[in-house]
Amino acid sequence: QSVLTQPPSVSAAPGQKVTISCSGSSSNIGKNYVSWYQQFPGTGPKFLIYENHERPSGIPDRFSGSKSGTSATLGITGLQTGDEADYYCGTWDSSLSAWVFGGGTKLTVL
Amino acid sequence: EVQLLESGGGLVQPGGSLRVSCAASGFTFGSYTMSWVRQAPGKGLEWVSAISSSGAYTYYADSVKGRFTISRDNSKDTLFLQMNSLRADDTAVYYCAKKKGDAFDIWGQGTMVTVSS
After folding, report:
1. Could you give the C-alpha distances from A64 to A18, B29, B61, B73, in angstroms and in order?
2. Which of A97, B11, B72, B81 is deepest in the core (most CB within 10 A)?
3. Using CB atoms, which residue from A32, A37, A43 is nearest to B109?
């Protein structure tokens, strides 16, 4: 069981918008920055969002992040088939003194 | 080009040991905290360990504490993970990751560790 909770899967049609939720607690999301990662099969994760909503250079503005209380959300607009991947949220847990990740969400673009 | 390249994975028997390495290039390795993150087959990401830029401070997940040791050689831009008393549930792809602020901005391609008799 992951410390952070994500839906196992989400799906939407090309061109549509999708959101992926990440639920935690006061010791992790409630207290620390959240980051998001994209992973294609057989490859290492890719850095997508940091400090809750900031995008690294090279990440299109179709990807957005937000945080409220003990939950965070990744949004993807203008979905493309190339966005099909697994998405993970992550943050530091101050009580566990450990970095924690969500269980991952598989995005399907129908 | 900023790059992390893991090596050293393989098949090891339960109770055995293995050391995996991560060679860094394209950035000032000695200025950054580094971590190991693993992913069991078909599962999600699990943080394993971290080491401060100087190597003075180390952190471990409870699942590996006392069995794994993280270290680094800043003169050779290389990160290590010494894994002892390996168990079947340590079977995973092991990724090294560079920490930037409160996130991991660079990841390697991973090295597979299989613990089986």
Report:
1. 11, 29, 30, 37
2. B81
3. A43
